[in-house]
Amino acid sequence: MKTGSARPPQKGFFDKNLITPPGEGHQKITTAVLLAAGRGYRLRPVTDDAPKCLTEIGGTSILERLVHGLQLNGIKKLIVVVGHMQDSIRDFFAASSTTLEVEFVYSPDYLTTNNIYSLWMARKHIQDPFVLVESDLIFDASLLAPMLSPDKIAVSPILDWMNGTSVTMDQRGRVEAFYSSVNPEQVTGSPPRKTVNMYSLSWASWKRVEERLDLYIAAGRVQEYYEVVFSEMVQEKALSLEAVTFSPNRWYEVDTLLDLDEAERLFPAPGARRSTQLPASQ
């Protein structure tokens, strides 16, 4: 594992009044940010002894799969926000043979804050466009490639078991609005898609997001999801995100023990037969 300090931003590089169209004039992203500070209460007792990202699926931890996928796709630097059982995550990287340059950010208030705070805590380490990933996400490594140009959002067709945030898109595939439900009856406009909790941001977009995060944290809104900020900025046309569709049988979000069983079926141990069926309703 390589370690290093973040380089200072280039003077005059960012113009906060300039909104660059997604994917235009940008090189491939080589930095990833992983939010791995949470306690993982819904996955107990598994997370009593290990952070959620070290949960094994098919004999391989979520974190090991992620690191392998990042390296396959040319990621060079990984910023990891840690909290619950942070030493276990640090030990994982110390024992690994990864070529990634890894920087750790400790979030001391992880028990009383949400992912908006974790992302805000990483702000001083983020010096380049980046892809943002959460630590309970398992996916085929090949899905990452189209996310490595800036200002993308991973989405999926909605299945019966899915819940949480959804988005609608315009005819060009850009997000029009975020919704707190996947129920089509509660959504206005085009058929909704489930958010996969993976985003990429250009440097210009990130600096605008960072300014908004500062306002939320200063106001004490530390228990929000960062998607609240993205939603607000999309509505104000201060942020533009282009959708990348993930097949629903090639990714899974592991929040509960039942999720863990389904993820094992989709991502079995090496040599075992992979299920081609979509996850059952929960």
Supply database-style keywords:
single chain; Spore Coat Polysaccharide Biosynthesis Protein SpsA, Chain A; nine-stranded mixed sheet; 21% strand; disordered N terminus
Q: What order do the helices and strands come in, and which of them pair?
A:
Elements: E1 31-36, E2 56-57, E3 60-61, H1 62-72, E4 77-82, H2 86-95, E5 101-106, H3 115-121, E6 130-134, E7 137-139, E8 152-156, E9 166-169, E10 175-179, E11 193-201, H4 203-218, H5 226-235, E12 242-245, E13 251-253, H6 257-266
Parallel strand pairs: 1-4, 1-6, 4-5, 8-12
Antiparallel strand pairs: 2-3, 6-11, 7-13, 8-11, 9-10, 9-11
Please give a structural write-up.
The protein has 282 residues and is an alpha/beta fold. It has one domain: Spore Coat Polysaccharide Biosynthesis Protein SpsA, Chain A (Alpha-Beta Complex). The strands form three sheets. Strands 1, 4, 5, 6, 8, 9, 10, 11 and 12 form a nine-stranded mixed beta sheet that branches. The longest helix is centred in the last third of the chain and has 16 residues. The radius of gyration is 18 Å and the shape is globular. The protein starts with 30 loop residues before the first strand and ends in a 16-residue tail after the last helix.
